[in-house]
Amino acid sequence: MYCASDDIGDDPITTEDEITVEVLFAENFLDSFGGEDEVLAGNLKNAVLCKMSAYGWEDVVEPDTTEYMHGPYDPVNNTSSYPGLR
């Protein structure tokens, strides 16, 4: 059995370093397309899109909710989900 250490995972409090990294990533990402105005205008560079597709970016696969809703009902045992509620 694998147990992750306590320092791995999502921290509910965002640090300044995390915010800085996210802002820099967003700026670099937009710059790769020519800036925010180019993205908003829909003028995406084909070379950037081809590079993304070559490195594993895929189309979003939407689930077929109609098929799921017409399937059999599988009850879920969630008695341990909220142990404080009785």
Automatic annotation (TrEMBL):
Regions of compositional bias (Polar residues) in chain numbering: 76-86
Organism: Phytophthora nicotianae
Protein name: Uncharacterized protein
Segments for region (Disordered): 66-86
Domain of life from the UniProt record: Eukaryota
